[in-house]
Specification:
The chain contains 9 helices and 6 strands, in the order ααβββαβααααααββ. With 234 residues, it is mainly alpha-helical. The chain has 2 domains: 66 residues, no CATH class; 157 residues, no CATH class. Strands 1-3-2 form a 3-stranded mixed β-sheet, covered by helices on one side. The protein has a 3-stranded antiparallel β-sheet with strand order 4-5-6. The radius of gyration is 19 Å and the shape is globular. The structure holds zinc ion. Zinc ion binds next to helix 3.
């Protein structure tokens, strides 16, 4: 679904849009599916739009992603000496969660409500995945099989990722199969990141992996040794 700019602008997102558009051209494209996404590409901000009940809020959400990029939020580079399977996907996944923790308070401050934070289809997809993950974890827990803390941390991160919803349904299930304090420590880490003014996520990334028991992995905002934060050194 492709919108014209005027139909996406409202009194809540107009100033944000003008701020972004004053720094680089904003190009609207049809996503071709039901997802809204935003990318910086060749000096332009590409926003891919989709059918939504509240397109103005979706537009604001994507503009905030772009705005955070322009203010310096980037996914850190990493050195993984733990040989974690799918590490590239896990880093990308965690960056998306951290990004949303920063976007959410700014989105609310514009005057939108929490339930407008995601396009209509997203919450049910999250539930489906959480159901699947919680059931698999419970199966392993009951059978006394080992559980990789990363396999626990990912659904917990998904559950805690804004907006707050469905928590009542999954929190006790995930806590039951987690080591004592694991859920609480992850939540404290994510809230600390959200409250802190920093846009350098290396420390939060390293702490996340440390909580999961992976020490020999480091993160760097500049992709160099100069500012690498190693989980085992925290
Ligand atoms: Zn988003």
């Amino acid at each position: 679904m492709l919108y014209d700019l005027q139909s996406l602008l409202d009194e809540r997102n107009r100033t944000l849009y003008e701020g972004v558009a004053s720094q680089l051209p904003v190009v609207l494209l049809d996503s071709g599916n039901d997802l809204w996404t935003a990318h910086l590409k060749n000096g332009t901000a590409e926003i891919h739009t989709a059918d939504a009940s509240w397109p103005g809020a979706c537009f604001a959400h994507e503009l905030l992603h772009i705005s955070l990029r322009l203010r310096g939020l980037t996914c850190p580079g990493y050195v993984d000496n733990e040989n974690i399977a799918d590490i590239k996907e896990i880093v990308g996944w965690l960056f998306n969660i951290l990004d949303h923790f920063k976007v959410y308070p700014e989105f609310l401050a514009l005057g939108y409500t929490g339930d407008q934070f995601l396009a209509d289809s997203d919450p049910s997809e999250v539930c489906e995945r959480l159901d699947h993950n919680a059931s698999e974890l419970e199966r392993r827990f009951i059978a006394d099989l080992p559980i990789d803390p990363l396999a626990l941390a990912m659904p917990i991160g998904m559950l805690l990722s804004p907006p707050p919803s469905q928590r009542w349904r999954y929190e006790s299930r995930l806590k039951r199969v987690s080591p004592p304090g694991f859920f609480e420590d992850l939540e404290a880490l994510l809230l600390e990141w959200q409250r802190s003014p920093t846009l350098n996520s290396s420390h939060t990334f390293a702490m996340f992996f440390k909580l999961c028991g992976y020490q020999r992995i480091g993160f760097s905002a500049t992709n160099t040794q100069a500012d690498i934060v190693v989980a085992g050194n925290l």
